[in-house]
Amino acid sequence: MRIGRLALAGIALAVLVTLVALPATAQVKDYRKIKYPSLPEFKIAQPEVYILENGMTVFLLEDRELPLITVNARIRTGSNYDPPEKVGLADLMGTVQRTGGTARMTGDEIDDYLAVRAATVETGMGGTSGFASMNCLTDAFDDAFAVFADVVRTPAFSNDKLEVAKVQSNAGIARRNDDVGGITGREFRRLIYGPESPLAWNEEYATIAAVTREDLVAFHKMFYQPNNMYLGVVGDFDTAEMKEKIAATFGDWPKGPKFVPPQVAFRKELKAGVYFIEKSDINQANVRMGHLGIEMTNPDYFAVQVLNEVLGGGFAGRLFSNVRSDKGLAYSVFGSIGSSFMYPGIFNAGLQTKSETMAAGVEAVKEEISGIIDNPPSDDEMSRAKESILNSFVFRYDSRSEILGQQMLYAYYGLPSDFLEKYRVSIEKVTKEDVTRVAKEYLHPDKLTLLVVGKAEDFDKPVSTFGEVTTVDIEIPAPPDTTPKVERTAAAVAAGAEIIGKAARTIGGEDPASIEAIFRSGTVTIYEEGMPGPMKAEMLLVFPDSMRMVLKTPVGDMAIVFAGDSGFRMMAGQVFDLQPVMVAEAREELPRELAYLTKHLGDPDLDAIAAGEEEVDGVPCKIVAVTLGDTESRLWVDAQGRVLKQAYMGKHPTRRTPGYIEVYYSDYRDVGGSQFPFGQVLKVDETDVQEIAYDSVRMNPEVDPSLFERP
User: Fold this and answer.
1) Does 701 sit behind a cis peptide bond, omega within 30 degrees of 0 on the bond before it?
2) What sign does the CA torsion over 139, 75, 125, 313 have?
3) Do 243 and 283 share a domain, yes or no?
4) Cα separation of 13 and 403, whole Å?
5) Looking at the whole model, is its pTM more than 0.90?
6) Which of 349, 364, 556, 610 could form a disulfide with 496 if both were Cys (CB 3.0 to 4.6 A apart)?
7) Structurally, how many domains does the chain consist of?
């Protein structure tokens, strides 16, 4: 391939420029002495802003680079306005607003309609605002915008989609203690704002269960009014034409009452405190310390941003340099004074460190917090901090979509429209004296709330080193028990004893207490998305508290073992310890095993009360409410003593979410003089979840104790 003379000349010129430039750069021995030109002026595109007669504020910004249009709406509402007995209502509304369809289309029909047009419409909820968004190709705008408007204005909130959303919320509740970082952040926020503040409320099973479709409708009606809404459109359109389309779509929406935001309470007092959460299954300590921060409207906002960069700004910040790099005390370390729009943010500092260096890590972070007050930043620190802030600021708003979103955000929260333009100048004006002043004013080392999460016995010093310790309870409250209550009378107790006795003799034979172990093999089918089809399985129960299950999956055998207070999982030659919560849940379920109940017939801890009669698949049954220790369930027993159904409030076997569990037993066969069910179907909230078909059952098999020992 030939290279033209002009191309050669260009290459030669580039090389010459590079060679000429090299000596100038090479003369600088210290990179900190390299002089850079000032940043060029940052010009921000300005959207056109106007207000419809019904009070809706509209932002329009053309961007003809690609044939795409993006629409965003921000609505004056938020999860901070949830009633305390229905925490989670706003989030459910934000989800079902989209999934639950509209007056014209179901949610599934909307999915198909938009998919054909390569468009999306989404809704959701934040703490201080609701949102709706739409993305589409220019040619599909009219169709997609009509759906977007229907979703915003006339959502149907179908009950079936609300129930799906509740399941998803409950799944989040069930998993919220799985991640130690999530625990630390959640509980620290609660300690700062106070447990009575909506800013720190948690969704619970009871509050989710309390939400109805009528609540969603009422919440939407209260907050979703055109005069509470900011609408932004950016992309490939003509402004005049877009104004006409917006007027035609939203102009007939009647104006609602003036929005008066409910007062959101939070703890304003700064008071030192030391708190601890025991997490015995981890080998790291997670530490948070801090207090209330500032609001975005604070005139010291820009000086605080520079302070944050000096203290905790990446690799060059004091916390990273001194606590992590120099002292080697942290996997991660951070610290900054947070700022929010409608209430103070949180000054939040902390680290992740080895359990054996917890106290040393706390002391090191506290030393840096005090140090930023006592030792003002150097000229180099100030220069680096400002450059870092301004360089990252430019790249956060390098598209018209980002600019429009930020302009809408500032307008929504009442910041001046030229906030972005003034940002650079305001940062550049910050002096060392400003940073020192705000450090003294907004940092309070003597009033820190300290939270430590980890395994206490592994710490280098006890948490009490830092003050009187308050233990934080993170146990998830149980869901409300919806099973009908049984009146305890002498007649009901006598009848209950007769029913459970008959069932025990059917399952356990003439000597039910003689059952020491049960081996079962068969096929397990789990009706869960992503799960394989029917799997061969073997289950060995050894009373009182050991269980081993082997599932033959498409990728190899997986063994799950519980023994006493511990458990482990084995697969592909690897062994993993089970979380204590999973072991505890398995121990809780064991007393619901029919053979386990049978074995404990006559036990003082076994309580049985007759609870009426009901048919199961057309077969008349007597119901007995059974309690063994702290574990409750109900059994439906037919005239032959066979248990055809068992029900209780429990947890989904794979998702660990709470629900009403029903187990249907069938295909009873003789096993050494006992009658044992070879068929089993488990339902959660009336939905089939799991089916088991046994092909072999053995009572009191010979047991190898090593099967329950961790390799």
Assistant:
1) no
2) positive
3) no
4) 39
5) no
6) 610
7) 3
